[in-house]
Write a structure and sequence with these properties.
Blueprint: E1 3-4, H1 7-27, E2 33-39, H2 43-59, E3 62-68, H3 74-86, E4 92-95, H4 105-109, H5 123-131, H6 140-151, E5 160-164, H7 171-180, E6 184-188, H8 195-200, E7 204-207, E8 225-228, E9 232-233, E10 239-240, H9 245-248, E11 254-255, H10 263-286
Parallel strand pairs: 1-11, 2-3, 2-4, 5-6, 5-7, 7-8, 8-11
Antiparallel strand pairs: 9-10
Amino acid sequence: MAQLIKGKDVADRLNAALSERVRRLKDKGIRPCLHVIRIGEKPGDISYEKGASARCEKIGVWCRKTQLPEDVSQEDLIALLKHLSQDDSVHGVLLLRPLPKSMDEHAVVNCLCPEKDVDGMTDLSMSSLITSGNQGYAPCTAEAAMECLDYSKIDCTGKRAVVIGRSRVFGKPAALMLTDRNATVTVCHTKTVDLPAIVREADIVLTATGHPGTVDKACVRKGQIVIDVGISMGPDHKLCGDVVFEEAEPVVAAITPVPGGVGAVTTSILVKHVVEACERSSCQSNS
C-alpha cells in the first residue's frame, strides 16, 4: 500500500510556523492583511472564500472581503484593484476567478501590483518563476503541490517528472518549480499521444486536468509518487481527483488523496504568501 500524503498533516506544520511569524509581526504592531474579492455567488468561490477566511482567522491574519455583483463593470473592478495596490494596510489581494466572460481577465489581473499578488495572477509573478525574482508569488495550488513533496522528503533531483495539464494556474508553474528542483520535466496535455506510456516512465506524477480517470492503472508503476490536484464530481456523484485512486494506490509508493490532499494545503500557502508580503513590506518601511 502507498504512503498517503495527507493535506492536513502538511497544512498543520505550515500553520504552526506561520502563527509564530504572525505573532512576531504583531509584537511590532503590524497585522498582516488579506483582501478577498468575490464576484457573484458561485458556490465554488464562496467555499474557497470561507476556507481562506477561516485559515486566516486561525493563523491570526486579518481577512477583509469585498463581494461584487455579477454585472460589475471591468472599469470598477480595475479601480478597486488599483486602490488596493496603493493601500498600505493590505498586504495581499486574492481575486477569485474565473471572472465574468464579459471581462478581459488578463487586463484586469495585471492592474494589481505584483507585490500584493499572493496567488500568482499577474504576468510579473509568472516571469519571476522563470527568472527566480522576488516580484509576486507562485500560484498557490502549484506551490501546495511542492509543499506536499517537501513534507514527504521527496528529493526531485535527477527524477523524471510528468505534469499533466498546462494551465497558468498549475501546469506551467509546477513544471518550472520542478525544474528548479533539478527534475527532468515533461508536460502532457489533451493533445499528448499515448499518455499512459509517458506517465509510466515518470518517477513523480502531478496531474491537474479536472477529469476523473485521467490516471488509471495503465499509467502507474511501482515506486512512483503521485500528486493529484484534480478535483471534480465523479460518476457516483462523489468528489474525486484525476487519479483512479483504488487502481493507483496499491501500486505506487506515495499518493495524495482527493479530497484531503493538496486542496487542504492551498489556503495555508495563500496565508503564507500574505505573511511574506507583510514581512517584505515591513522590512522596506524600516530601511
